[in-house]
């Protein structure tokens, strides 16, 4: 396919928008790509500390192994002895595996470096995809995150599931722990930092973090991993 005349608009400058731009650039080297955003990257979800993609419905353990076993490294089921040593609370099963952790603020910066000056960035709030329809774009890609539903004409089925992350200094942590859907500790890059989380609150649009939020996360994480040597919040 010739990309000489292709003009492509991407709405959203987060990890999905920028990775989409890079994929298109690699496939269509001469396409004209413009990325629209309505706010600085630092104010987007991608700049935040955590975003874990997972299946939405319950799955059997066999399906879990089939889904992830060939993707991650060193996938295996923990023995009962290992569970008793690792988990402070009784656990029916546990999984060990090795995976990459990518911080949005670092990953998006890396993607932009890969793109270099081959795309145009424009700060503009797009209220509707129709706004771009008369600008001769061959393709418009909706990567607007929470705003994507409204852009596509669906103002009800896209809503936030609010989470809170706490970054602490905890030397010597090289393994992540993840329990159920909302309790985890993940080592992040630099200065012995560990990310603790989280909450899952549907339709919470505000960004206020309360003392109750912090105490809730703190209690659950320290119960999950009592050996966590937290030195500084």
Automatic annotation (TrEMBL):
GO cellular component: cytoplasm
GO terms for MF: D-amino-acid oxidase activity; FAD binding
Keywords: FAD, Flavoprotein, Oxidoreductase
Cofactor(s) for this UniProt protein: FAD
Residue ranges occupied by any FAD dependent oxidoreductase domain in the UniProt entry: 51-228
Secretion signal span: none
Family, per entry: Belongs to the DAMOX/DASOX family.
PANTHER family membership: D-AMINO ACID OXIDASE (PTHR11530), D-ASPARTATE OXIDASE 1 (PTHR11530:SF28)
Protein name listed in UniProt: FAD dependent oxidoreductase domain-containing protein
Taxonomic path: Eukaryota, Metazoa, Ecdysozoa, Nematoda, Chromadorea
